[in-house]
Amino acid sequence: MDFKISCLLFIRNEEDDILMLCRKKSPNKGRWSPPGGKLDMVKGESPYQCARREALEETGLKLGNDDLSLFGYVSERGYESSTNWLMFLFDCNKPITRIPDNFDEGTFRFFSRSAISSLDIPPSDHELIWPFYDKRNLGFWCIQADCDSQNPPKLRIEAFPG
Fold first, then answer.
1. What are the structural domains of the chain?
2. For residue 72, which of 22, 126, 134, 156 sits 20 to 30 Å off, Cα-Cα?
């Protein structure tokens, strides 16, 4: 299986609503997810460099390292039975003031945290992403998930705040 490294950005507006992208492309086509993208491994890009680049490319938000808080990672083995993913999860400390323009990867909207649970999001995100986003202020989380399209992900917390 392919192995991909990516970052997800949890960007909020001044009302504390979270910016979400309805994806036009795979993976997760037609579903809502936080903005982000794959590391440019050919250039040796770091997760922080990737997060800053993706924020600028997708939202127009120019960030420095101090604007980002890395609160964990999720390692998904066999996502959609095709790819192994390592996703770095970044909380953005700098609010965004407007909805970014639509672009070739999708359409943006803001949602309250409670509304996100009822959106069409990737099924594994209910267990792998959002519970740990809600606990991001407790410290750094490391999650391993064995994904199987026939069963819910099997989670192992490799490291947790403590």
1. 2-159 (3.90.79.10)
2. 22
